[in-house]
Amino acid sequence: MSLLSIKDLTVCYGGIRAVDGISMEIEQGELVTLIGANGAGKTTTLKSIVGWVRAKSGIISYNGMDNLKTRTHHFVRHGLVLVPEGRGIFPKLTVLENLEMGAFSRKDKEIETDIEHVYTQFPRLKERSSQAAGTLSGGEQQMLAIGRAMLSRPKLLLLDEPSMGLAPIIVEQIFDIIRTISKQGVTILLVEQNAKLALEIANRGYVMESGKITISGKASDLLNDPKVLSAYLGG
């Protein structure tokens, strides 16, 4: 059974079909990327998985749960976590307080250990642990958003445009961390406009156009697909 299964999903905004009957499967341990132009429906797809927007029809199943009948706040407790576009940090809380918020649903005694692990992966966050999150740079805020998500010990991590607005050298660092998280066994669904970088680290990919999945396959194959090269990779 797939960790995440989406079948014939349709999401509408008024009379517009933002997501138009898509189907996807993600297996445990995979890093899968969803690429496409602005307005293709990628972010809406992620939001529908965690119940931020409601589907008109279709099926979303995460780890055997019926997502369309599950309240949003239950997903974190079951290991399904979204790092939204724009990061969604708490700007007035400190870096440490933001990380602690990531563990709000946990009751074990390993939270401090996990915070130190995040600090190891993101040394800048440790340097700024008592600093208000809203005063961090864009790259540091993205690191914090990912670190906070890791404090919930996700089984499936949804990442929405983690490279948006960041300098190239920071983007490389963020993608190195995403690759490391994947190697640690966390399943990842990555929505990303930088198609080349996304496909280089992914196992498989889906291409979304105007609310529909138009191409899917191994990431290495998509990197060499003439249609993908032409539309998204500058080929």
Give a brief outline of the structure.
This protein has 235 residues and is an alpha/beta fold. The chain has helices at residues 42-49, 72-77, 95-102, 111-121, 123-127, 138-150, 168-183, 195-201, 219-223, 226-232; strands at residues 4-13, 16-26, 31-35, 57-62, 65-66, 80-83, 156-160, 187-191, 204-209, 212-218.
Secondary-structure element order, as H and E? EEEHEEHEHHHHEHEHEEHH
> What is the molecular shape?
globular
CATH architecture of the domain at 1-79 and 190-235: 3-Layer(aba) Sandwich
Largest sheet: 6 strands, mixed
Q: What is the residue-mean pLDDT, rounded to a whole number?
A: 94
What fraction, in percent, of the residue positions are helical? Answer: 25-40%
Question: pLDDT under 50 segments (min length 5)?
Answer: none
What radius of gyration results from the CA coordinates? Answer: 17 Å
Number of DSSP strand runs: 10
Tell me about this structure.
The chain is of the alpha/beta class and 235 residues long. It has a domain at 1-79 and 190-235: 3-Layer(aba) Sandwich (Rossmann fold), CATH 3.40.50. It contains 10 helices and 10 strands. The protein has helices spanning 42-49, 72-77, 95-102, 111-121, 123-127, 138-150, 168-183, 195-201, 219-223, 226-232, and strands at residues 4-13, 16-26, 31-35, 57-62, 65-66, 80-83, 156-160, 187-191, 204-209, 212-218. The strands form 2 sheets. A 6-stranded mixed beta sheet has the order 6-7-8-3-9-10, with helices on both faces. Helix 3 (95-102) packs parallel to helix 6 (138-150). It is globular and about 45 Å long. The termini are far apart.
